[in-house]
Amino acid sequence: MDELISRVIAASGLNEELARKAIGIILAFLQKEGPPTEINELMAALPGAQDLANAEGGAKGGLMGMVGGMMGGSGGVMALGGQLMGAGLSMGQIQSVSKEMFAVGREKAGEDAMGAIVGAIPGLGQFV
User: What is the CATH number of domain 2-127?
Assistant: First the structure.
């Protein structure tokens, strides 16, 4: 996890606290929206990932959670973007964090797992 956090910080310019928060939000989103088998592979390949996801798992509420509920679901990638912006990230930082996270995911969990995750979540491909 330290390698992922360091790479996200280097790519995005975020401080460690915000990098951890952003990673946790994204991991919690992927657990909720992604294919279970491949998500389990990703989480197993990133020691400490479950702790970060659990820490941010409650961040689904608030305004974006209400908007997602009105949209008939979680709100998908748009709700994820809203959560990350609400945490203080710019659109450029969101893209940097996402690209770096998925690069590390490909290295650790493999291209097949990450490809299945991206393919299963509508709109995710534009961020990775």
Answer: 1.10.490
